[in-house]
Specification:
5 helices
């Protein structure tokens, strides 16, 4: 759990920057998550409603708060995730 908190702490500025740029829009967040997914799911669309479930927002929500976004990462961070690995994906999506 300590490692996860370290990763979250390192990534929080990028998470906030991405969230602000995306306007909290779920389709943009879903695109980020799809690029972060492990193989064989990487790059494949999520089932309908999955992004809402992951973010724990209502099924009809179109956006989420920065807090919801960061908490989702805190809950779902994989032991193999690193700030360096995920940071590169954030950078790619921030640049879009």
């Amino acid at each position: 759990m300590e490692v996860a908190e370290k990763v979250i702490t390192e990534l929080t500025p990028k998470m906030k920057q991405f969230h602000e740029k995306a306007g909290g829009e779920l389709p943009k967040i879903e695109a980020l998550f799809v690029d972060m997914a492990p193989e064989p799911q990487k790059g494949k669309p999520m089932p309908p409603g999955m992004i809402n479930a992951l973010l724990r927002v209502p099924k009809d929500a179109a956006t989420c708060s920065a807090e919801d976004f960061i908490e989702c990462f805190r809950r779902n961070l994989d032991a193999s995730d690193t700030a360096e690995k995920l940071g590169k994906i954030f950078d790619e999506h921030i640049a879009k």
